[in-house]
Design brief:
By secondary structure, the chain is α/β, with parallel strands linked by helices. Helix 11 links the parallel strand 1 and strand 2. The protein contains 17 helices and five strands. The protein has a five-stranded parallel sheet with strand order 2-1-3-4-5. It folds into three domains: 123 residues, Globin-like, CATH 1.10.490; 79 residues, Methyltransferase, Methionine Synthase (B12-binding Domains), Chain A, domain 1 (Orthogonal Bundle), CATH 1.10.1240; 127 residues, Rossmann fold (3-Layer(aba) Sandwich). Helices cover 66% and strands 6% of the residues. The two termini are 34 Å apart.
Length: 357
């Protein structure tokens, strides 16, 4: 019953998202007139957009029936605002949102949404900050990873290529580069952006250059003999973060699978017909942002409604599902993969278990 209430609230919030945001911001500016002097009319418009985004995350949490989704977002947003010298006081903002939703949602839906907002406000009371990178004293990959990242942040992808090629010639496997250098390095760039130490342009360049490096290294990756099993990998609607899934596809390819990488923003309606045509043993779905988890659930449901989709193992991954691992089973997936190597091993274990059953 709570799941129905949460999803109904999420649907209403998404449908009325902009109107809710406008009302909330106008009410907050009326209650705090000093905001006009600090941010002006341009700040008012930015606040409306930001509030709409916040409502989108609240809807995602309600849809998943997991207050932790919104709680994590609230702490992330507070630390982002602090790093950009925009303050970080969100408690009043959440109070305003609670009041607006209380007026515009049915009572039970408003109560659930209000509870999620209160939970997030409580988390904001703890003086946490974005996590610092792990200690590198015992990390044998720290120096290589930092040198690689330094080169890319300096827009020197040729230098980065020379560095990783040299590492391969010295005995480092391409798989190790993916897992120990590229994957944590990309997360570090995201952390640096969160702290305002690099720009969005830096983040995009590092991602694009890493994709190029991955292509350059394919000739050095040993592959197993093709065994005939198929893997289809895709990102859900509106999801632009595709590099992690590319790594997963490469690992399946090296393990002898026939892989089909569909890329970012794959329309979910187009997936079941393709799965019927390809008959893959495993379908991998990537979802980085919590606001896209509902798309993931709808896609899994559509797959389970098709003959080939019912037979396939469905693996999910991406930060939204790694941060909240209980969501994977809630949306109907068979397992969540923490990285590319574990995705392959989990797929093979699940298929072996089905064969043995």
């Amino acid at each position: 019953m709570d799941a129905d209430i949460g999803r109904q609230a999420a649907t209403r919030i998404r449908l009325d998202q902009w109107t809710l945001a406008v009302h909330a911001v106008e009410r907050q500016y009326a209650a705090q007139p000093q905001l006009w002097g600090r941010y002006g009319s341009s700040g008012l418009e930015a606040s409306r957009r930001d509030t709409a985004a916040t409502l989108n995350y609240l809807a995602a949490a309600l849809d998943a029936l997991d207050p932790g989704v919104f709680r994590c977002y609230a702490v992330w947003l507070r630390d982002l605002l602090v790093s950009r010298d925009l303050g970080g006081e969100l408690t009043t903002h959440f109070d305003v949102l609670r009041n607006v939703l209380g007026e515009r949602l049915p009572a039970r839906e408003a109560a659930l949404a209000g509870y999620y907002l209160s939970e997030a406000a409580g988390a904001l009371a703890a003086p946490t900050a974005p996590p610092e990178p792990p200690a590198t004293g015992r990390d044998p990959w720290a120096e290589l990873r930092q040198n690689w990242l330094d080169r890319l942040l300096a827009a020197d992808r040729r230098g980065a290529l020379d560095l990783v090629r040299s590492a391969v010639q010295g005995g480092t496997s391409v798989a190790e580069l993916y897992l120990q250098v590229f994957q944590p390095g990309l997360r570090e760039v995201g952390r640096l952006w969160h702290l305002s130490r690099v720009t969005v342009a830096h983040e995009h360049y590092v991602s694009a250059a890493t994709g190029w490096l991955m292509g350059q290294l394919q000739a050095h990756a040993p592959t197993e003999p093709v065994h005939g099993r198929r893997f289809v990998g895709l990102c859900v609607d509106d999801e632009l973060h595709e590099l992690g899934l590319r790594m997963v596809c490469d690992f399946f390819d090296w393990a002898g699978w026939e892989t089909h990488f569909l890329g970012a923003r794959t329309p979910r309606r187009s997936v079941p017909p393709l799965v019927e045509a390809l008959q893959p043993e495993v379908v991998g779905i990537s979802c980085t942002l919590p606001i896209h988890v509902s798309y993931c659930r709808e896609l899994v449901a559509a797959l389970r409604a098709s003959p080939a989709g019912r037979q396939a193992v469905v693996l999910v991954g991406g930060q939204a599902l790694l941060a909240h691992p209980g969501l994977a089973h809630q949306i109907g997936a068979d397992a969540v993969g923490s990285d590319a190597a574990s995705a392959v091993s989990q797929a093979e274990q699940l298929l072996a278990a089905r064969t043995a059953a």
